[in-house]
Amino acid sequence: MAVPKQRHTKSRRNKRRMHLFAKKPNLSLCPKCGKEVLPHTICWNCGYYKGREIVDVLAKLDKKEKKKREKEMKVKEREEKGEEKAGPLTWEEMSKR
Ligand SMILES: [Zn+2]
């Protein structure tokens, strides 16, 4: 069996390990809801993949969460259509009116 002849220093050990770290996954944005999703994977926030609904996400949630999620989706759809923005106005928008 090969036996090390000399002990390696901490510096040498640490230099070897400097490339060992968890890499950040490259996420893409869901075109439906805008959340970050893994590429080639369905979005678990809205259950859509390639423009089709694959999983009914709302079916699994309880009543309270369901309402909350539906509200969020409605806001998102409204924003996409370019209608009036939901939520409070900023001071700049107030001064325009
Ligand atoms: Zn989504």
Provide the fold topology.
Blueprint: H1 10-17, E1 28-29, E2 36-37, E3 48-49, E4 52-53, H2 57-60, H3 63-81, H4 91-96
Antiparallel strand pairs: 1-2, 3-4
The structure holds zinc ion.
In a few lines, what is going on in this structure?
This protein is mainly α and 97 residues long. It has four helices and four strands.
Question: Could you characterize what this model shows?
Answer:
This protein is mainly alpha-helical and 97 residues long. 38% of the residues lie in helices and 8% in strands. It contains four helices and four strands; from the N terminus they run H-E-E-E-E-H-H-H. The strands form two sheets. A two-stranded antiparallel sheet has the order 1-2. The site of zinc ion has 8 residues, from loops.
Order of helices and strands: HEEEEHHH
* Distinct small molecules: zinc ion
Integer average pLDDT: 82
Describe the strand arrangement of the main beta sheet, using strand numbers. 1-2
Q: Could you tell me the strand content as a percent range?
A: 5-15%
- Amino- and carboxy-terminal Cα gap: 82 Å
Low-confidence stretches: none
In this structure, how is the largest beta sheet organized? Answer: 2 strands, antiparallel
Task: Work out the number of β strands.
Answer: 4
Number of helices: 4
Helix content range: 25-40%
Q: What overall form do the CA principal axes indicate?
A: elongated
